[in-house]
């Protein structure tokens, strides 16, 4: 797994490094002679499509044990950032065409989807906070049942039982869309400050950079809103824009998939996985993307995952391990037999492994989501400026 510093700086990830090579490749396109300008644009758009294919092909090649893990989700966000930066470069290189019909309609639709995406990022940020709460309870269990200083005693098990009950209540509350967590949103800033209190809306909920996420907000409905009218461009639209609308459709589909995978993995308010993907065969990147979507859907349909807080592998491990631990704590009698001690040590080892994954992975994952939020926001701001400049010239 990449280190915290690597993800925080975004400088050492292979996928991010691959994204940086885009700019070198783009400089090569810029060196094409003026009379071959259309060919250069066509090559750049083709490269973008191939770039998306390659990245998602690598993502889809993981085994069942890796899919939807914290590490895989980090790679997914790396892929999204790489695609978004390439897409942004295409936008900036074709400024004069962005505000011309039918490109202006496609651009405006993408910018609207990106606005809605910001709330999904905020909801995922809240979901990570939920997991952090669960992590604290797990650490209490590990601390309570630490036998290095003393033999196991009833007091240790009472404390562990209390932590497990608190964890069960937190996880049950996480499935309730009206829970306290679902009414909080910090827009990736410090919470509980005087400034934030002044920014609260009349309904009592904090305002995000995109909109106000209230107790009635639904991740499922937000995803459906983003997916609405997401259809491939017609032939005449492609011809009129020299293929530019195809890149917008590609990025819109990538955005939709990444957001739906994020909502599926991380506890979000009113999760929903019924988003339908329809990608015409001429878009080769659709093959790995649809394959991943189908694998995620299959995972969600498994009996043991249907009532889960999220499809993140580590969440499943927490649920499975804490069930085992709760049953053990409830039935144990003193003094413990050697067989019981061995069983307990095995479960504690599993819990310690999960805690280590949370300790090392949640911070970098949250920083990536912050980065995705900022990049989507910056790209949207640039797009709005391009549309505005184009309208002023007319």
TrEMBL record:
PANTHER family: BPS1-LIKE PROTEIN
GO CC annotations on file: membrane
Protein name: Protein BYPASS-related
Localisation per UniProt entry: Membrane
Protein family: Belongs to the ROH1 family.
Keyword line: Membrane, Transmembrane, Transmembrane helix
Subcellular location, principal: membrane
